[in-house]
Amino acid sequence: MSFEAKCMATAIGSVPHMDAGAACSLILDNLYHIPMWPQLPNISFKENMYVQYSEGMPGITIDEVERRVYFDTAKDIIGELETLFRSYLAEEIDAFAIGQDYARGLYTFLELLSREQYPEIKILKGHITGPISMGLAVSDQSKKPGLYDDVLREGFIKTLAMKAKYQVKRFKEVRPNLPTLIFIDEPYLMSYGSALISLNRDQAVGYLEEVIGAIDGLTGIHCCGNTDWSLLAETSVDIISFDAYSYSETIALYPKEMKAFLDRGGILAWGIVPSGLPLPDQVARESVASLVERLEAGMQLLVDKGIDKELLLNQALITPNCGTGSMKPEFAERTFTLSHEASEVMRRKYFS
């Protein structure tokens, strides 16, 4: 499943706002083709990306006072895993619901979509934390990452897959005729191939594919740093989302793999608007013209290596380079505005 993106704009999940309605309005006003529900990490620790989708994971423990999430292997993990498997195999999607206190932005977003038409929406976007990042960021009580525990890994990967399916289900309830898109956020892929993590290529692809394969809709993988982009192109994901502001040249190191990815209908989401990376206020120093110039220069690196420019433009999205949750609200709002305006400039230039 794919589509002609034609430089439409979307974004990564987090925003710094404390009001879900204001965050949704910001998104719907700027990303009117592909809006996403906002993650609101400044409201509650439960909206931290490693906590937000953890409800129901076997062994999970959330300490809001200490702002800590971990796996407690002293719990009845096997019993919890058996319960999870029964719901998983029976496709009991509501058993994996995301609680309202874990995702205020999701419920406000759904409520707005049920009341207003927003006729320009083409796709509804959600997001989950990726299995590799979840497994490396969340450890057990002895500091062993969950990724390296076979039982825990089975539990959290299947939970994440079902949390994605739950979002698709809720989107279809309010907009049954719209396609859906779920981004799998994988910041820890920046460490893939280093001595910091023990993870081979087949394992990485396999863990990602278990989540991708469960999602009935479009899928994307977002990594906000440099990684082995050929690994992502090897999966069946529809969209590769990367930090084009800082790392366009790294994508161009894989022209053969990127060409194959685009030829099969894959889309590159160009994170060309700075959202706290590399500097919190970098977005204030940029203009639409400077970002479009930077974007076109990044695309040219791939064109120079034999990738058709028309194909590249047709299968491009414009996004911030990461979430805006750590930014000041005024900088985050500028990030969304610039993403929208850069998209409009590109669409007028190449598709009008």
Give a quick set of tags describing it.
352 residues; alpha/beta; TIM Barrel; seven-stranded parallel sheet; two-stranded antiparallel ribbon; 12 helices; 9 strands; 12% strand; globular
- Number of domains as seen in the coordinates: 1
The structure class reads alpha/beta
Number of strands: 9
State the major sheet: 7 strands, parallel
Shape, per Cα inertia axes: globular
Low-confidence stretches: none
* Name of the CATH architecture: Alpha-Beta Barrel
The average pLDDT score comes to 96
CATH C-level class is Alpha Beta
Please tally the helical runs, counting DSSP H or I stretches of 4 or more residues: 12
In N-to-C order, the SSE pattern is EHEEHHEHHEHEHEHHEHHEH
Share in helix: 40-55%
Strand portion, in percent?
5-15%
Distance between the termini: 25 Å
Gyration radius, in Å: 19 Å
The name CATH uses for the topology is: TIM Barrel
Q: How are the strands of the biggest sheet laid out side by side?
A: 1-9-8-7-6-5-4
Compact summary:
This protein has 352 residues and is of the alpha/beta class. It has helices spanning 20-30, 77-89, 104-115, 131-137, 150-174, 201-212, 229-234, 244-251, 255-263, 288-303, 309-314, 329-351, and strands at 8-9, 60-63, 68-71, 124-129, 180-185, 218-223, 239-242, 267-273, 316-320.
